[in-house]
Design brief:
The protein has 19 helices and 19 strands. Helix content is 42%, strand content 18%. Strand 2 and strand 3 form a beta hairpin. It is an alpha/beta fold. The strands form 5 sheets. Strands 2, 3, 4, 6, 7, 17, 18 and 19 form an 8-stranded mixed β-sheet that branches. A 4-stranded parallel β-sheet has the order 13-14-15-16. Helix 2 packs antiparallel against helix 19 and helix 7 runs parallel beside helix 11. The structure holds zinc ion. The site of zinc ion (ZN) has 4 residues, from loops. Zinc ion binds next to loops.
Length: 507
């Protein structure tokens, strides 16, 4: 997957070891001053070490082309007149943020002109797209939604994403790094555009189609997928060395999915409460489902859930290196907001929504009906899910932050910050919430030697903040500047991007 992200290589990488050895010696004696004559420097900044949960003030970070070349105490570095300086005093530098659960509803032109700049302006320098398109498959499937083009909304094919990456690296457009999903996999009934699968043989064949389409990973959906089709997909993917992520179908437990090798599990769902519940109580919750429907099932799961029972799930996730992406925002939004229409109308961010998303939201708001008793039940259910995810995080399971934009009230860019806030409310420390959008995505993508921390040799995806995110995760919203693959955007430049995006969205 690495080739996808790093299109240009710079020679600075090779000197990293030398530089670190040099720093080690320098720490003992008096450090010699390093002279720098070109590049961009964040001067006198407080560096956030996400893994260590610590702040290191008085540092200067120098970027040359697309990589970080120096991270030194400011007193140990002399900047020549050719260096572009960014004032970091009183400010905080973090690695670029990843939104690990993104969809598109516009056409390709709108993605480029509206959504990409909006992601960047909010410090989101990487996105994992969670629904793709296989043009060969849709061309042979009468009636299926076509792939996204400049004029047609849909899901982007991996080829479209390759085109975007080239435009971004060539600086023809601005945008984040992008991981491409396969067309989603589902059972024989289609609820979203997907490969509709009749049998395990069919499933194996479509895994090969998805690989040939160029997708970075396979996305599982759960509207109608059977257990045997699921296992055929995961087995075939493993044989071909392609990552599987997504939902876990009903009829497959989370432990089973982890053991099968599904790398990423999306959405904190009833399956989490089932996995952390006593067998007897989970069985009666399931029986309640048969007799009394979904809400009776949730009531049963709330009673069954006990964090002390999460042990076997934790063990399976740890053993298999499985990542968990709760996507709380998308699930809680329409329950916690009593007046959805007012919530949208009162929110200035709606100016960054393309017309198609606005009208979809209108439709979805019309469809929402929830009585107070149900709302209260859901609130209790979410409390248990929060507790479950906090338990996973505290047990060492890597959590991925994903917003699931542009679902209802999930705005591109800022939606990620909303999700980080919920993760913190759920019980994650600010450092753990920040890790879910920085170090954990880098590890998930096997890119942790290039992304996820601020160190010499790393790719220069950086966000400069006005306030300390380790004090309050809400401070990730105080974006002063963004650097994406070495390209600097000051606050003025970011405001210009937002303004242009709003104009493009209104078209
Ligand atoms: Zn999604």
């Amino acid at each position: 997957m690495r080739r996808v992200f790093i299109i240009r290589h710079s020679p600075v990488r090779g000197i990293r070891t030398v530089l670190l050895a040099f720093l080690a010696v320098g720490a003992v004696a008096c450090a010699p001053v390093t002279r720098v004559d070109q590049g961009i420097a964040f001067v006198d900044v407080a560096l956030i070490d996400v893994s260590g949960g610590s702040v290191h003030p008085g540092m200067t970070v120098v970027v040359s082309r697309e990589r970080i070349v120096h991270v030194l105490p400011s007193r140990d570095i002399a900047l020549g007149p050719g260096v572009e300086q960014v004032d970091g005093e009183g400010r905080f530098l973090i690695p670029g943020l990843w939104d690990m659960h993104v969809h598109f509803q516009g056409d390709a032109d709108q993605v480029r002109t509206v959504e990409f700049p909006v992601f960047l302006a909010h410090g989101v320098t990487g996105i994992r797209v969670m629904s793709g398109c296989d043009s060969t498959y849709v061309s042979r499937q009468p009636g299926s939604q076509p792939c996204m083009t400049d004029e047609t909304p849909g899901n982007p094919s991996p080829r479209t994403i390759v085109g975007w990456r080239e435009e971004i690296v060539g600086r023809a457009i601005v945008g984040p790094r992008i991981v491409s999903s396969s067309m989603m996999f589902d059972g024989s009934t289609e609820c979203y555009p997907s490969y509709t699968l009749e049998s395990p043989e069919d499933a194996r064949e479509k895994v090969r189609w998805a690989r040939n389409s160029g997708a970075d990973f396979l996305k599982i959906l759960n509207c109608s997928m059977s257990s045997n089709v699921y296992h055929a997909i995961v087995e075939e993917a493993r044989a071909l060395g392609i990552v599987v992520a997504g939902h876990v179908p009903r009829g497959v437990t989370l432990i089973e999915a982890a053991n099968a090798g599904q790398k990423g599990i999306e959405h904190a769902a009833p399956s989490l409460l089932e996995a952390c519940g006593s067998a007897k109580e989970v069985a009666s919750a399931r029986a309640a489902y048969e007799e009394g429907g979904f809400l009776a099932y949730l009531e049963g799961l709330i009673a069954a859930f006990d964090p002390a029972e999460c042990g076997p799930l934790v063990a399976a996730l740890l053993e298999n290196g499985t990542f968990f992406s709760p996507t709380f925002l998308v699930n809680t939004n329409n329950v916690v907001n009593h007046d959805l229409r007012a919530a949208v109308e009162d929110d200035d961010r709606r100016r960054y929504l393309v017309p198609r998303i606005r009208s979809l939201w209108e439709t979805w708001i019309e469809e929402q009906t929830i009585d107070e008793a149900t709302r209260t039940l859901y609130a209790r259910y979410f409390d248990r899910l929060y507790e479950g995810v906090a338990t996973l995080e505290q047990s060492g399971i890597p959590i991925l932050a994903g917003s699931d934009t542009p679902n209802l009230l999930v705005y591109p860019g800022s939606g990620l910050h909303d999700e980080l806030g919920i993760l913190a409310d759920a019980g994650l420390s600010p450092a753990a919430a920040l890790a879910a959008a920085t170090t954990a995505p880098a590890r998930y993508l096997d890119l942790d030697t290039d992304l996820g921390s601020v160190a010499p040799g790393m790719l220069a995806d950086l966000v400069l903040l006005d306030a300390n995110p380790l004090k309050d995760i809400g401070n990730t919203r105080t974006v002063r500047a963004v650097m994406a693959n070495g390209r600097l955007f000051t606050r003025d430049a970011l405001d210009d991007l937002l303004e242009a995006a709003a104009v493009a969205a209104a078209k």
